[in-house]
């Protein structure tokens, strides 16, 4: 199996922030050696002509089989990163989402398949356990620490985790 590398063009993606008991739903991201490298909120590519909200709804339906409600306007973030020596570039629409509290009730983790058929695991992470030297990183880098943010995002996120700020460049 060929290891994943970022495409060599700008990708437009939408990711959803879903909270349960103050924890963020995110998929585990592994390196080429099978070691947990970090976690990333769920979502995926925005198709040409598709609004970001529709892309987010489609991705959650495809990956988890759930209908979501997108809450409020997006936060926009540019992410230029390196993965195993390959540079990636994406523009992200980041939105809070909600789905039925009955979905995945009593489950700590969710196993699903990516579009490529690759198996994935998502679970709810306490943000205080991320971005530590011994723990997984929160991707995209800068999601939790960049200073530019909307007042609505600050109010919601600081309620659970003071200092958790979303980079907004909208």
Instruction: Please state roughly what percent of the residues sit in beta strands, choosing from under 5%, 5-15%, 15-25%, 25-35%, 35-45% or over 45%.
Output: 35-45%
Structural class by helix and strand composition: mainly beta
Low-pLDDT stretches are 146-156, 160-170
Number of helices: 2
What would your notes on this structure say?
The radius of gyration is 15 Å and the shape is globular. It has 170 residues and is mainly β. Helices cover 14% and strands 40% of the residues. The strands form two sheets. Strands 2, 3, 4, 8, 9 and 10 form a six-stranded mixed sheet that branches.
Could you list some keywords that capture this structure?
170 residues; mainly beta; six-stranded mixed sheet; 10 strands; globular; disordered C terminus
């Amino acid at each position: 199996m060929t290891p994943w590398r970022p495409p060599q063009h700008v990708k437009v993606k939408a990711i959803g922030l879903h909270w349960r008991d103050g924890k963020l739903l995110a998929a585990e991201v592994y390196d080429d050696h099978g070691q947990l490298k970090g976690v990333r909120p769920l979502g995926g590519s925005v198709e040409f002509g598709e609004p970001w909200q529709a892309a987010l709804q489609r991705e959650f339906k495809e990956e988890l089989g759930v209908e979501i409600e997108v809450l409020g306007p997006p936060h926009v973030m540019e992410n230029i990163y390196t993965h195993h020596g390959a540079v990636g570039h994406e523009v992200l629409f980041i939105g809070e989402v909600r789905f039925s509290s009955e979905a995945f009730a009593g489950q700590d983790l969710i196993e699903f398949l990516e579009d490529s058929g690759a198996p994935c695991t998502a679970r709810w992470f306490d943000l205080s356990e991320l971005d530590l030297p011994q723990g997984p990183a929160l991707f995209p880098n800068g999601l939790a620490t960049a200073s530019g943010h909307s007042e609505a995002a600050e109010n919601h996120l600081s309620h659970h985790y003071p200092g958790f700020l979303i980079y907004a460049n909208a």
